[in-house]
Write a structure and sequence with these properties.
about 200 residues, alpha+beta, 8-stranded antiparallel sheet, 1 helix
Length: about 200
């Protein structure tokens, strides 16, 4: 009796290994691209979340701007610190929940501090109706590439602000850096009760 069973040739085995390798390589490539896209979308989502929280917070504070002065400081001021870092400072009736028991008016300060390759936005708050020191500046947004504020009053935009009365509108533009890309954000806030 003759054995009719036949095995695979070397060429068939090598060809099947090659096809299997190509299939596994393409599956790994697809998995790797999906994983990289997921990581990129998560990082971008975090940046959008930070920007949304910032714009919601500063919008509420500017919307509750305290127009009458309290003490010797201007209601609204901005400029550069002695080391050249930008700051925006104003009185508001929107107080952080933890400090609300001390009074309903605070002086909020946003300050951009330049680091090696990016800037960091800090926020501090001082209750004006209680004898308390300003809070320690807390890091609000990191990875800033650009932070610009423009002011609108009497039909024209200005890049800086000084005066006894606040502007009618404030426009804030920031760019956040993620890997090698910049994501821009911009929002404008009308300061209610300010006349032109």
């Amino acid at each position: 009796m003759r054995d009719t069973s036949r095995g695979f040739t070397l060429i068939e085995v090598l060809l099947s290994i090659l096809i299997g390798t190509l299939v596994l390589t393409s599956i790994y490539g697809i998995f790797s691209s999906v994983s990289n896209a997921r990581n990129r979308f998560e990082a971008e989502g975090d940046l959008y979340h930070q920007a949304r929280i910032f714009f919601d917070r500063v919008g509420g504070e500017l919307g509750s701007l305290r127009l009458s002065p309290l003490g010797g400081e201007a209601v609204f001021s901005s400029g550069n610190t002695s080391v050249g870092d930008f700051f925006l400072e104003f009185n508001t009736e929107l107080v952080s929940p933890l400090l609300q028991k001390y009074g309903g008016i605070s002086r909020v300060r946003y300050e951009v501090r330049q680091e090696e390759d990016a800037a960091i936005l800090f926020r501090s708050e001082q209750i004006l109706l209680a004898d308390m020191a300003a809070s320690e500046p807390l890091q609000f947004i990191e990875g800033l590439k650009t932070f610009q504020v423009r002011y609108f009053r009497q039909g024209r935009w200005q890049d800086s602000w000084s005066g006894t009365t606040p502007p009618q509108m404030v426009e804030i533009t920031l760019e956040l850096k993620i890997e090698d890309r910049l994501i821009p954000f911009r929002s404008s806030f009308v300061l209610s009760g300010v006349r032109g």
